[in-house]
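Question thread 4412

I'm putting together a teaching handout and wanted feedback from people who do this every day. The idea is simple: show students a protein as raw sequence, then show them the structure tokens that encode its fold, then repeat with a second protein so they can compare. Below is the first pair exactly as I plan to print it.
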Amino acid sequence: MRVTPIRTDRVTAGAVTLEALTDAWLPDLPDSAVVAVASKIVSLCENRLVTSDEASKLDLIARESDLYLTAPNDYGFHFTITRGTLIPAAGIDQSNVGGGYLLWPKDPQASADALRRHLDERFGQHVGVVITDSTCTPLRRGTIGVCLAHSGFRAVNDYVGTPDLFGRTLTVSSSNVAAGIAAAAVVAMGEGTEQTPLCVVEDLPFVEFQRRDPTPTELAALVIPPAEDLFAPFLGAVQWQTGAGGAAPVSVSPDDPAPRP
């Protein structure tokens, strides 16, 4: 796998479309490559900026999330479940924005599909897209990249039912390809003043490309019901408040059945 971050001009809210941005900074593209785009850039292209005079951050969190915690943690972050992702503050960001609050893209999956179709038409070859953000993981310092949406390739390689090296049948093993590509891209993009919100990821023998958008069935398969989630005991141990986000609220209850082994 080869990961190449792309430096661009500084992007301001509403100044350019995502298609125009990629046209300007991706003059060519290898066949069977994935273009990673920072969600912040997608949001800026969609002009998802809200001034601090329009709403408070907690109001925006309640509006954008599916579920949220009203009490902040020691770092001042409110945890949320937004579009099936556990993320601080519903992904609302203030860094590298220039003032105000930048919301997540309105519909990350639609944005990923639209960009994939644009790049497919432009280059006439297999191309994938991932929209990325960064988050933190329990018991580890620092951030890691996550995938908010993907298009143009199979997101998960499933090993269930196949034997391991010693013939033992695997029962739950699968590899989240989209998440792995997002993590590699985000660490190459950086978190500060690098100004590299695009990344081309190539040499991907483990990726099965598809010259189409993911189907609703494929997207639904990416989401684990809370009752089957390994982290169900933790998700169900807090008092979630229901937000007004665009996605359907996720039901998390400590009374749900135990997760699968």
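The second pair follows. I'd like the answer to focus on this one:
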Amino acid sequence: MPKPLVAITAHSALVRDDDDDLATRHEVVSTPYVRAVTRAGGRAVILPVVDPDDRDDLHALLDRFDAVVITGGVDVDPRSYGAPTDARCGPTQPERDAVDLAVARAVVERNQPTLAICRGIQVLNVALGGTLVQHIEEHMVMASYNTRVHDVTVDASSRLAGILDADEYWTNSLHHQSVADLGAGVRVTARAHDDTVEAVEVDH
């Protein structure tokens, strides 16, 4: 059987070559996402930055893929869910928000298999009408990128528990925002020891 095609959402960034002072704008995806999809048996394809207002083009593009990964990154702009900006909110990219929100709404509408990671979870919740906690303490531990920071309790009835074959696991922690009010159809499936939302699923 052919390997499933997995689209990984890209974002726009200025990239400077090591031996060149000129920075040019690229559409980029962090390498660990590509490696993870490959290790899982998929064929990773970068989903380009699309026009969020061109629904037909987005759906035609998504038709080509078996699954989608919505990636992590900077904070989601609070204006996208109608909230004032907390002084502790980090840098935002409203243009990226618009694209990622359009992708999230499209994959839910299509019931397309999707994995939303870190910021991706927050985007997914906002896309479905939810809100975010703009700052939480002790959840941005960059020095422990690949090590245990805290444990997570998983809803035993969730798809996540079935995949992990466990109702508890450990994780690193690289976020200072999290899900607050749930969007339509969004269900919490894992929480940290301090009740911070660590995973969600969308019910249809």
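Top answer:
Good format. For the second protein you could add a caption like this: Residues 127 and 187 are 14 Å apart (CA to CA). The radius of gyration is 17 Å.
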